[in-house]
Design a protein that fits this description.
By secondary structure, the chain is of the alpha/beta class. It has a single domain (20-232, 283-315), classed as NADP-dependent oxidoreductase domain (TIM Barrel, Alpha-Beta Barrel), CATH 3.20.20.100. Helix content is 38%, strand content 14%. It has eleven helices and ten strands. The protein has helices spanning 47-59, 77-90, 118-132, 151-163, 177-189, 212-219, 247-250, 261-276, 281-290, 305-312, 321-331, and strands spanning 20-22, 29-31, 33-36, 64-66, 98-103, 137-142, 167-173, 196-200, 222-226, 295-300. Helix 1 crosses helix 2 (77-90), helix 2 packs across helix 3 (118-132) and helix 8 packs antiparallel against helix 11 (321-331). The longest helix is centred in the last third of the chain and has 16 residues, at 261-276.
Length: 332
Amino acid sequence: MIDNSYKASVDRYDESLVSYRRSGNSGIKLPTLSLGFWWNFGGNDSIEESRAKMRCAFDNGITCFDLANNYGPPFGSAEETFGRIYTQDFKPYRHEMIVTTKAGYNMWDGPYGVGSSRKMMITSLEESLKRMTLDYVDIYYSHRYDGETPVEETMQALVDVVRQGKALYVGLSNYPVDVLAKAVEYLEAEKVHPLIYQGKYNMMVRDVEKEHFDFVQKRGIGFTAFSPIAQGVLTDKYLNGVPSDSRVGCGKYLTNANITPEILEKVAKLNDLAKQRGQSLAQMATAWILSHEPVTSVIIGPRTMAQLEDSLNYGNTYFSDQEITMIEEILK
């Protein structure tokens, strides 16, 4: 039976919960944690568990819900899940929410269902809005640079959806920094400042530190990190074998090659340090990302309520010089 009695917690903006950071030089603040719908909110997942996670997140100050056209599985089903729950629970709170979606990766059959063409970007947003039962999204991302479509074509599509009122802001994701620079230049010339850049960032994957961090800071653009716990590698779940319901155990985007003895040795040392700090490894991994100045928000994708509750209590984001040195020694 569907429970339509949801009333958001009156304490959802309490200072002891998730805090907020300004995205670049914009007027928008984003929560330090965003709820990601990539894998655990699709058509194969329990709608009631998805509802419980959305409610819990919002009640704890998570106002940003991060989606994409092809999140699921199957494609589109995460947006459909969001739309069902939004209609029943969250419609009264629309003005308090930052809802994002993206286009660029595989979505439908044929040559127009993938990539960053104008047709793909605009058609995909129209379909996303229908699935989510929304009139507009707060942030519409170009999910990637596809290597073929002229950057100007993709950026003009973003400009146009903003001018049409179908998106309030635009974001960019998975762009090489040289192409990112061209994209930002085009958007700025059209008076559509890119609000945020989204990139993969965690203790194991640090490529964005080399160039992207400096670029977004200089251009007044926020940064949101996805895959903060490396899809579960940066937790204690693999230290005593491979659980059958884990991503490695189920063969979902991770294999045994992602948890080699060398990697597990590093994870074990990081886990020991996390315990010394009074955190779980997942909490420390999130706190470590948030300790970096360019980072506005971290996208979490909890499979269970327990994982969500653990993420919410990430705790101290301060790392002493000694702790930083220890982490660098472990990771090298």
